[in-house]
Amino acid sequence: MSNPSPLPPRTQPPAAPGRAEVIDWLSGLGERSGELERIDSMELAWLVHQVEQRYDVELGDEYLDRIKTIDDAVAVLAEVLSPATAEPVLGGEAERSSHG
Length: 100
Fold this sequence. Notes:
By secondary structure, this protein is mostly helical. Helix content is 44%, strand content 4%.
């Protein structure tokens, strides 16, 4: 008689990216000075794309409006990707259309 297969281990939600990882993602757009703190609109669009692809979430405008610097991005992503707030769609059109 064989033992039943063990249950697969619980998967932890992926950790939110840190400062170094955000800078690394932004470098995908090209040369970037390590001292440049502000995130421009092109970098923000690229960062959002990276997050949505890697974490399977959508970032609503209320989060995007708060991202002006690398530290802002790290803080917002930590908030968005925490298990308590993570949902498939976070803010944006889908949430607004369900309220009205």
